[in-house]
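Hey team,

Filing this mostly as a record. A colleague (T.K.) asked me to run one chain through the structure pipeline before their review meeting, and I want the input and output archived in the tracker in case anyone asks later how it was produced. No errors, nothing strange. Just documentation.

Input sequence:
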Amino acid sequence: MNVNTSAEKKTEYAFKAPRGTEDILPENWALWRRLEGIGRQEFELCGYYEIRTPIFEDTRLFVRSIGEATDIVEKEMYIFADSEDSSITLRPENTAPVMRAYLEYELYKTKKFQKFYYIGPQFRKERPQAGRLRQFHQMGIEAVGASDPLLDVETISVAARIFDRIDLKGYKVKINSIGCQKCRPVFRNILKEKLREHEKTLCDLCQSRLNRNVFRILDCKNEKCKTIGHQMPSISDYLCNECQSHAKTVRESLLEIGIPYIVDAHLVRGLDYYTKTVYEITHSSLGARDAICAGGRYDNLVSDIGGPSIGSVGFAIGMEATILALKNVMAKNKSTYQEFSGASPLVYIISIGEETKKQCFYLLNLLRKSNLSADYDYEGRSPKAQMRMANKLGVKYVIVLGPDELARGDVKIKAMETSEEISLKQNEVLNWFLNKQAHLKS
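Output structure:
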């Protein structure tokens, strides 16, 4: 029987990442590490503590918190049967899971006001596009247990500092107030009445939203719906005194700390739990779906899922969208992000001859035990090929150990920048590099 080995090989490599997902390969981790590292620094600087929740939750948590008539719940959630009468859902966002944990462990009894941050994957079944995936990553904060408008400003400032520190030029802060339970119903009825005059012109999705989630029509990306939306009255004209005062404090305080903003009267959020302050941070290089951060206040969420009535505010940064925007800025400025890459090993050990391998491996681990970064050739390449690899890695020094050095009990050390070479006894190597490292740090 003839076997088509080439066909078998092709089948072996036919598998691809699922649609709407991406592999983050080692060479792409530079910006990811930078964004995560700066995010953690800023979060912890401002008193936020990391929390990690499961990637799936009881489906009812999201239906109750996000809203049954939202696009996320109706069309975008990955839902799986858990038993005959229950289901679990891959988390489409992380605010509701954090609030669930806050209530489940009764954290409010030990300390009512708490600050959390998270970094991790979320899942939504939507049409994949640049910076928008079905498995995507967010980093965010939740400040739970206070209604002070200055806390809204703090969350915006945390996000802005992160974008400033990663050198993302050209982002814009957009804010709005969507009112509270006292004033929003009045505006909802007025908005419905006005939009009914244009019902037949609205897209099919917005026609269905008219009776279920009318505020989302203001956020539709369809050009006809956008034109109609901009003809609608502004909620700012219908805010109660409390919401007006809250919005005024937020805006004045942003300017006081040097954060410019745009008031977008048609900015709404796609989740039902938002109240009062909502905001987005956008970047024009991303096109129509330009948000890299979105957040706001959700004073009713904790009580909606069975907890006490307490104010809360937070945001989520879309990590893929942020990194794409940063790459766009770098491309425009013809700059690179090599400076963000992981540190190269300090030392590369070159082994010449089979008999030197064990001693090279011993030296490798001796350096690593003292927190000196070092690497070694495991592929049996020629000395020239090993030197080329050392150059490619960008190491500062190479250790060369051949049969002659092995017999004498010494090594040859070469400084890659200057090509200077010295010989040292093998028992002197560790202290020599420790002194070099101390000198580099100073």
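Quick notes for T.K.: The chain has 17 helices and 16 strands. The chain has a mean pLDDT of 90.
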